[in-house]
Amino acid sequence: MDTLKLGTRGSQLALFQADAVAGLLRERADVACEIIVIKTSGDRLSEAALSEIGGKRLFVKEIEDALLDGTIDLAVHSSKDMPAVLPAGLAIGAVLPRGDARDAIVLPSGEEALALDDVVRRLGRAPRIGTSSVRRSAQLTRMFPGAKFLPIRGNLDTRLRKLDSGDFDAIVLAAAGLRRLKFDARISTALPPDTCVPAPGQGIIAVEIRMGDERVREQVVRITDHAAAAALSAERALVTRLGGGCQMPIGGFASEVGSELRMIAIVVAVDGSRAARAETRGPIADAERVGIEAAELLLARGAGDILADVQRTQGAVEGIQP
I need a surface site. Which of 18, 77, 252, 269 has the fewest CB within 10 A? Predict the structure, then answer.
């Protein structure tokens, strides 16, 4: 059996994702994986706010460097952490089926699952909401106009512990991560994508490889999910055309509707005062074009001015969206 060296971060969720890729490669390609944990800049600065620490490819840089120098054969990432434009010599070789792409509001332990309107009422006029994503806070400030959005980082257990100890009235997390780590019961309400447009790539596990490494490419392509690959292609094209790749309030979500790909996309001012929104549809086989057309609509509706304002006031953190 062939053996590949698989690079990953060391968080609970990252190791779950690495194990999922390794299991599929064993099952479908008769390939074993040696999992190599690599600490990234984002891990070393785990308590700092994302908008403050900056740095190129914050959660993937060291892993991509190891891939480029041949230390590892493939890398596994949450696709939303990857740069919109990959370093020269690297490519996405496969993606797994998409998990729940929605954002989830989590209330303190002991609270039951509620409808969104009930959560809004429960939190009241001025809740303390934990999130380090400007995309989430920019969209949710319209739903919670009196809320105070506070940075929160760390592993999932750490974030839940901070919530349950009273540091926050609620936190907002990716539903996919909660479900993958068996914390489904902590989801108080999942936000419909039309209400809070997810981060491009959210819920998708991506496998990154070296361009020209045909041995690895032929093995990983056997585990790819074509629906997720089309969605990710559209969402990454959206961010690239918008000039994104930083800690930006960009939402983009593509999904299959019959034989077409539907994309909803949004760019929101950090304070929620302005927003540009677009919806596009097109053939699944032309996914990248669907994303580019959504970006063009957003730019025509003022997204460029909103993003320029954000760039002037926010620190740059490369990646699609945290």
Answer: 269
Question: Which of 287, 260, 295 has its CA nearest to residue 95?
Answer: 287
Q: Are residues 259 and 121 in the same domain?
A: no
pLDDT tens readout for residues 66-123: 999 999 999 999 999 888 889 999 999 999 999 999 999 999 988 788 999 999 999 9
From the candidates 73, 81, 103, 169, which is the catalytic residue?
Answer: 81
The tens digit of pLDDT for each residue in 25-40 reads: 999 999 999 999 998 7
What pTM does this model have?
A: 0.91
List strands edge to edge, sheet with 250-257: 250-257, 260-268, 275-283
Strands lying side by side in the sheet with 205-210: 31-37, 2-8, 74-78, 205-210, 90-95
Determine whether 286 is an active site residue: no
Whether residue 201 has pLDDT greater than 90? yes
Do residues 79 and 112 both lie within one domain? no
Name the nearest CA neighbour of 63 among 92, 28, 84, 38: 38
Q: Which residues of 164-180 are buried (b: 16+ CB within 10 A; e: fewer)?
A: beeebbbbbbbbbbbbb
| Number of compact structural domains in the chain | 3
Residues 80, 210, single domain; the answer is: yes
